[in-house]
UniProtKB/TrEMBL annotation:
PANTHER family: LEUCINE CARBOXYL METHYLTRANSFERASE, LEUCINE CARBOXYL METHYLTRANSFERASE 1. The lineage of its organism: Eukaryota, Fungi, Dikarya, Ascomycota, Saccharomycotina. Its EC number is 2.1.1.233. Keywords: Methyltransferase, S-adenosyl-L-methionine, Transferase. One of its GO terms (biological process) is protein-containing complex assembly. This is Leucine carboxyl methyltransferase 1.
């Protein structure tokens, strides 16, 4: 009998495993038809060109990921896909499109000048493969995550000729623990130019970082990058006794042995955004809104109805409660 191959049975820590939840929710949202978005979903901005290859990208990725998964992880992923509730599927849709919405608005203002994207704590997200073919002026897209997470992601990509065709020299995966210093050096070594406008994405990542690590990250990026956009998506508490967040936190601790260290500390929209606003003294603009606000403001009535009917959602109050507890911050400097 062959000895077990440790490479094929990676041991993910609880925080690294959160990426399987994000991926499972995304695959569920795709399989039920929420993602990709449709033109008629929105009142004004059309972002659908970004999603031309969306289904195929994720289908290929999922198919080539399966052989890399241990039985336990495969079953965990399947459970997430199967049990993702309609409110969660709409949440995944809102999270995905609101980030792309904000990025595209920024890119339009750049008038075809070069720009870069760094996805911090990217996990298995494949945003790079939507953006790179669309924008010739996107000079570099870098995914940063723990070595084990990116090793896993690259094995799935390398297994597919379709996926590898997107992986050009403009794309890099940078295995890195964000709690370690010298992120800038490693980004520069991988082709990032600090003088070019740079979009940083932290999608459900800041909430898992220790306060000092998150604040150091903000300081480092401010100190090194001349211009940019930072988009941060996270859950948010509205008071020290926020029941929704308290339940989320206790579930995480009980089921996963995982906590979100700063969730109750930054327990208002102002406190959350002030972490950036107090550091970026060269701020051009910033906006913070809940995903419920995004749903109400940006989605057309036709779009809302489409989402509602996909799985016959009748719990709109539940959607409101849940999505009010997720925010998107964008800051431009
Ligand atoms: C909830 S997942 C989100 C993944 C992806 N951003 C998305 O939304 O699809 C959180 C990700 O942050 C990564 N992460 C958390 N702490 C990190 C750290 N200190 N260094 C690098 N990555 C980290 C995890 O490995 C995981 O992939």
């Amino acid at each position: 009998m062959l000895p077990p191959n440790p490479h094929s049975q990676p041991r993910f820590t609880p925080v690294q495993q959160t990426d399987f939840d994000a991926l499972g929710c995304k695959l569920a949202s795709i399989s039920h038809g929420y993602l990709p978005p449709q033109i008629k979903d929105f009142n004004d901005t059309n972002i659908t060109s970004l999603y031309e290859n969306y289904n195929q990208l994720y289908q290929e990725f999922h198919a080539h990921l399966k052989p890399c998964l241990s039985r336990r992880l495969a079953s965990k992923l399947n459970t997430t896909i199967a049990h993702s509730l309609p409110v969660m599927n709409i949440g995944t849709y809102l999270r995905t499109v609101s980030i792309d919405f904000t990025i595209i608005q920024y890119i339009h203002q750049l008038n075809n000048s070069p720009f870069q994207i760094v996805n911090l704590g990217s996990g298995t997200d494949l945003r790079a493969f939507h953006y790179l073919p669309q924008y010739a002026n996107l000079t570099k897209f870098i995914d940063v995550d723990y070595p084990i997470s990116l090793d896993f992601k690259s094995r799935a990509i390398d297994g597919s000729s379709y996926l590898t065709s997107f992986s050009t020299s403009r794309y890099s995966m940078v295995p890195w623990d964000l709690s370690k210093g010298s992120l800038i050096d490693i980004l520069i070594a991988n082709g990032i130019d600090v003088a070019i406008p740079t979009i940083f994405i932290t999608e459900c990542v800041m909430c898992y970082l220790e306060d000092s690590v998150a604040n150091q990250l903000i300081q480092t990026i401010k100190a090194n990058f001349l211009h940019g956009l930072w988009i941060s998506y996270d859950p948010i508490a509205y008071s020290e006794n926020d029941r929704f967040i308290a339940m989320m936190n206790s579930n995480l601790i009980e089921l996963r042995n995982l906590s979100m260290p700063t969730l109750l500390k930054y327990n208002s929209i102002d406190k959350y955004s002030n972490r950036w606003v107090s550091v970026f003294d060269n701020l051009i603009a910033y906006k913070i809104l809940s995903l419920w606000d995004f749903y109400m403001e940006k989605l057309s009535n036709v779009g809302k109805l489409r989402l509602k009917n996909l799985q016959f959602l009748d719990e709109i109050e539940e959607l409101k409660l849940m999505q009010s507890h997720y925010i998107l911050l964008s800051i431009r400097w």
